[in-house]
Amino acid sequence: SNLPPNGGNASEWEKAWISHGWVTSATPVVGSVAWFVGDHVAYVHSIDGANVVIEEYNGTSSRSYAMRTIPISSVGRFLYPPS
What we know:
The protein is mainly beta. Helix content is about 10%, strand content about 40%. A six-stranded antiparallel sheet has the order 1-6-2-3-4-5, with helices on one face.
């Protein structure tokens, strides 16, 4: 696989995922990419009820790694790992 699909900005990932025929969903799975409308992606570490724990760089501050818990509803789409 070519991850991310075609490279490019995070804002393009959902479209590229779909063009590869890879699954996207409003439902998170561990290991999927949390794709945010705009220009940000994160790794889904775990799911806790209506929340998702993500790992990310440059999410809360520039040039830093963080884990945080956010509502599932705040994520634009979940990009499942290609199979």
